[in-house]
Amino acid sequence: MIIEGQKLLLGNITRQNIGSGDGHDLAFKEFVLQMNKIFDLNQENVLVAKNIKNLNLTKRTTMESLTMNIFFTTTTLTSIGYGQNAPHSLYARIFCVVYITIGIPLYLITIADLAKYLSEMLYIGYMEIIKIKANILLKLKRKPPKFATRRTRGSIQLGKIIIAGENTIIVEVPFFFLYITLLGYISLCAYIMAGYENWTMLESYYFVIISILTIGLGDLTAKNEEYIILTTVLLLFGLILMTTCIDLIGSYYINQLHFFGRNIEGEDPLEWLKAVQQKRIEMLKRDAMRKLFETVTALHHLHFAARVNLGKGSIDSIELEPEIPPAPLSIEASNPTTDTILLSWVPPIFNDKDRKYYYTLSVKNRTPQRRNQNHFTVIDFINTNFYEVTGKSI
Structure pTM? Predict the structure, then answer.
């Protein structure tokens, strides 16, 4: 191409009038444009390129050569391969093949581990955003009562306690959060590189996207050796972020395809998920019921009413005691199962030993189905110091 440019220059000078200076200038300009085109097409030798453009006539230092070698090694292992630098000798090419044969698998393992760690960080960050949003909404909705009694401040109603597992929500990072994070990082890299590479924002966007997608066309490459390490770090982190996004989105669609295949085979994945969720709820209910009744009994929120038996006779002879004795003491919850809990207490001390007292236990329903009804379960005539509450009774 240089010989062709030389012939073009000589031909233009021959065709032009020897006494015309404008013709010589035009021919020389065409020759310079031809040389610049050659430079743009072949940028393998950076030292010659700098000398042609009269940017730096000094010899490169060892550090500059080392940085370019680091950039070449990184782009080779990441399979970007701009083509700016390439081995020319036979031994260099053999070494490069052996090097990437060993290095690329190690690089893939490393970037997969880093992407997994970054995905966990994205989950944690998204969870923190959800917590902050929930706290703000809770503060906006919370209005303290104008006249609050001591009991309403310190008591917990049974209907307000939710057994863990029944309202479990599986949090997944939404796609728009991943897209916004990736687009924001690409924009940041494009803005930084456009500053020290003298690119437009469009060119910088193009270079970053082509690089983190490991396409590496080579028509636009980083040339500023002073910031080549920064460019390498930015591109490496961009590759990790891109791998993370592809992994999260890909795993979601793989699961969808898996369930689609199960549907084709005649199996219902929803029923399978319901069965798994039901087993998990049953495992959690035992501990949840124990904690629920321990909390309620500790707050003495169970309502006990005392009735006195006046003697032998019918049920009509039972009447309310004018002076109700104190509530039972030391209420404890024990022996929890999936659907039952044992309540025990110490009977109150009263002076009249001839009279026998019965207890009435009122428990508020945990999941009422209708609103306009009294959702309290009343258990009458408990004459022992313990009672086993079952799931059917609440």
Answer: 0.49
